[in-house]
Amino acid sequence: MLHLRVPSQETQRVLLLLKAESALPEGARVRVDPSDSNLRLIPFIEDASTVTATQYPVVDIPTEPPAARNYRDHLSDFLPTSVVESTEWPTRHEFVGDLILIKLDENQRTHGGSIGEALLRQHARTRAVFEDRGVTGTFRVRDLKPLAVREGHDDSTRTRIVEAGHQLWTDPATVYYSSRLSHEREGTLACAKNLRQELGRPLAICDPYAGVGPSLRPLIAESDLVGELFAGDLNPAAVKLLRENIPHTSATIECVDARNLKNRPEMREKYDLLLVNIPHDSLEHLPDLLPLLQSNGIVRGWAIVEDTDFEASIHHLHSMFDQTATLEIRRSYSASANLCRFEARKTP
Question: N or C: which end of the chain has fewer CB within 10 A?
Answer without folding.
Answer: C
